[in-house]
Design goal:
Strand content: 5-15%
Number of strands: 19
Low-confidence stretches: 1-22, 486-513, 523-614, 622-690
Number of helices: 24
Helix content: 40-55%
Shape: globular
Strand order of the largest sheet: 1-10-14
Largest sheet: 3 strands, antiparallel
Radius of gyration: 35 Å
Structural class: mainly alpha
């Protein structure tokens, strides 16, 4: 790739604000009241253009009002969907194609890398098992006007970044409709077309098998071109007919075979956007016609797995040197034939560390401003294409692209989406001209890979009103209920305790403080109960030694019972106190929400189908379409514990066996002869018993001293909690006052 050429901005804040008003910025830096999980705060952050700073004035790109309700009977709708909608974008890589990939990679890998298709060809060798319930569930959220999925908690969409990372297509290069430059290239296309015409079937189509038989092993440039024709026909622009060779891809194949970089990502995404809209029309119209979708719809399924932790299967380990999509090879969806609820969204999954996968270079460790020139590194220029609002030129049509509605997916702050006005419909060439506009002189902000973004206070207010109008009150209530139930049901699927929950479901500061207070109150209640239990144990032991006639009847056994119960309990409580003290020190360094959050591991692995993703391409070529059903779930471990505990207490030569048995104690109280024998035994062993009582008095004194020390320590902890509570309330008042001042100035 070209050498990296960018200059770090060292200008002052005033100079940066002046620059933000110029047209050579995609991202603007300014101070704003932001809302996050921790509450509201005033901070300097970065926004993706175009945006609006006021709800009034008609400058906001509003959500439209949805004119239909999703069907209540999901199983019936799923049956209709499965029978009437077919997909060409889930075709598997068959054995002979995999063998051909191995041969062509050994010969033409440098050419593929130059053309920007190396990762895309490798990605096409992995199979994604279609799940109709997942596709129907997520496409019900699609809004054709905004090109985004609308959830109760916010918007999200498939962007050019997702196409780059998951499918390996390039966002840079020339358009697919560029004419051939030389007569030699035109001659190559004619030869391919002639071969396709001579081997076609009676219906005018040419299938995969005869095409491979005609060219495999022929050698030379023509075999390479024929291979690329097959790859484009099956895994980039799949035809309507089952695994047929397309008659429109030969010019593109000839250009790629000569190392010309072509921007396939915007074309692939535009076709996908169009088909998502067609599914919405299918749901509205309830037509009986069959619908064939030619887009790479497997991207929708893989995108959903990457983003939603509560519904995805457990990913495989990526083999070294393989693309990211390899971790989803031949996996099966957890839930089948049910409407899925989408929660626990990951805004930036590709920035996290993943074994054997190298993230793109624009996922930088520290945020920076860069000034772009013509020799900028390709990946930095790609980021600029991903975040710029534009139009995507498809095959005879144009689709809008609005990354400013989902700025948090790029680690940026989200403000009101600005209205994008176009006075007429663009042609493909005009759309490409806007998309490929030069970045020369552009100031580009590169967020840190750890940035998760946040929303402005006004966006939060606007979104609540907008999504309620879009979904309707009844649908909004239903969506929220399903999301809550899904979150409770799928809690045990948390696989990474260190994951950062970047959900936009933010709370105001007052709610955060209330949760903290609840945490403090619960802790105080535990402390009081903790002391009460100790006092009850010690009080019972002291009362047991009172020398009354009725209690002396039980002294020999009852007193021993009390001592044997007290001693292990006291040791256990002391151990718990030590642990609680250390936990309190850790709690001081963590938030209340972190203290009360419950984490669970996967109860079992998802069902797996197909071969292991760690297999080499050659091995997968030899296991043509072999599907296994591996149950990796581990058997539950049954834990058993004895509820009867036996302790032995020895006091000089006086030995008493104590068993925690309530019935035995009751018999001891009611049986007078038995009590008399105990009294006689106590008289005969008076000397030994006196020694035991003397020893016990010493123990009680030590215990009382320790209890006083613990009570004092607990009081100090309670006092510290009170101080923290007051400090938080004071901080809340200061922040609220500051926010009010800021809102007045806006």
């Amino acid at each position: 790739s070209k050498s990296l050429a960018f200059a770090f901005s060292s200008s002052s804040s005033r100079e940066m604000n002046n620059a933000s008003s110029s047209e050579n910025l995609l991202i603007e830096e300014r101070e704003e009241v932001m809302v996050s999980k921790k509450g509201r705060c005033l901070k300097k952050t970065h926004f993706l253009k175009p945006f609006a700073t006021s709800i009034n004035g008609g400058s906001v790109f509003e959500l439209p009002r949805r004119d239909y309700q999703r069907p209540s009977d999901f199983s019936l709708e799923l049956k209709r969907f499965s029978s009437q909608v077919s997909f060409s974008g889930f075709w598997f890589a068959e054995r002979r194609f995999l063998s051909w990939v191995v041969k062509m990679e050994a010969l033409h890998a440098p050419t593929w890398k130059k053309a920007g298709i190396f990762d895309a060809i490798k990605a096409s060798t992995y199979n994604i098992s279609k799940n109709a319930s997942l596709i129907l569930s997520v496409t019900e959220k699609w809004c054709p006007e905004t090109k985004s999925f609308v959830f109760p908690w916010g918007e999200a969409t498939i962007t050019l970044e997702d196409v780059m990372v998951l499918l390996g297509f390039s966002v840079l290069g020339s358009p697919v409709f560029t004419p051939l430059k030389s007569s030699e290239m035109r001659d190559a296309v004619e030869k391919l077309e002639k071969e396709r015409f001579e081997n076609r079937c009676s219906d005018g189509t040419l299938k995969e098998t005869p095409w491979i038989s005609s060219f495999l092993g022929r050698g030379g440039q023509m075999e390479h071109e024929a291979f690329l024709v097959l790859w484009l026909s099956l895994f980039v622009f799949p035809a309507t007919s089952r695994r047929a060779i397309s008659k429109h891809v030969a010019p593109v194949a000839v250009r790629l075979a000569r190392g010309e970089r072509i921007a396939l990502a915007p074309v692939v995404l535009s076709i996908l956007y169009r088909d998502l809209g067609r599914i919405c029309d299918f749901g509205r119209e309830k037509c009986a016609d069959k619908v064939n979708l030619k887009s790479l719809f497997k991207l929708v399924q893989v995108w959903t797995w990457e983003r939603f932790r509560n519904i995805r299967p457990k990913a495989r380990e990526i083999p070294k040197g393989e693309p990211r999509i390899a971790q989803w090879d031949s996996l099966q969806q957890r839930n089948q034939n049910v409407r899925l609820s989408f929660d626990d969204f990951e805004w930036r999954p590709y920035t996290k560390d993943l074994k054997n996968w190298n993230p793109l270079r624009f996922y930088v460790e520290e945020a920076m401003w860069v000034t772009v020139d013509e020799s900028i590194d390709d990946e930095f220029a790609s980021f600029g294409r991903c975040v710029r609002v534009s139009q995507l030129a498809g095959n005879g049509f144009v689709e809008d692209y609005f990354p400013n509605r989902v700025a948090m997916q790029f680690g940026l702050a989200q403000d009101l989406p600005g209205l994008v006005t176009r006075h007429r419909i663009f042609t493909e060439k005009e759309a490409w001209g806007e998309y490929s506009k030069s970045f020369d002189g552009l100031k580009l902000y590169m967020p840190s890979r750890l940035d998760r973004g946040s929303v402005t206070s006004r966006y939060r207010v606007w979104w609540r009103k907008s999504v309620s109008k879009f979904l309707g009150s009844a649908e909004m209530h239903k969506e929220s209920t399903e999301t809550f139930n899904a979150r409770k049901k799928d809690e045990h699927y948390d696989e990474d305790v260190d994951d950062i929950d970047a959900s936009p479901k933010v709370l105001p500061l007052s709610h955060v403080v209330q949760k903290l207070e609840e945490g403090f109150s619960a802790k105080r209640r535990r402390s009081v109960m903790h002391r009460s239990v100790k006092q009850d144990k010690i009080g019972g032991l002291v009362n047991s030694s009172v020398t009354s006639g009725w209690k002396m009847n039980k002294t020999s056994e009852n007193l021993s019972n009390k001592r044997s119960i007290y001693k292990p309990v006291q040791l256990k409580r002391a151990h718990e106190d030590d642990e609680k003290s250390s936990m309190d020190e850790k709690d001081d360094k963590s938030t209340s929400s972190q203290r009360i959050r419950s984490r669970k591991k996967y109860s079992s692995d998802a069902e797996r189908a197909g071969g292991d993703a760690s297999e080499t391409l050659g091995k997968r070529a030899r296991r043509y379409m072999a599907v296994d059903s591996d149950d990796d779930s581990e058997p539950c471990q049954k834990l058993t514990a004895s509820k009867a505990h036996k302790t032995r207490q020895i006091c000089d030569d006086f030995e008493v066996d104590v068993i925690g048995n309530t019935a035995g104690k009751k018999n001891m109280i009611n049986d007078k002869p038995h009590n008399g024998s105990i009294l006689q035994s106590a008289g005969r062993n008076g000397t030994k018993k006196a020694e035991c009582l003397l020893h016990e008095d010493g123990e009680k004194q030590k215990c009382n001293e320790k209890l006083c020390s613990e009570v004092k320590k607990q009081e100090e902890i309670d006092e510290r909690l009170k101080e923290r509570k007051l400090a938080i309330k004071e901080m809340e008042l200061k922040l609220e006052a500051r926010i009010i001042e800021m809102e007045k100035t806006l």
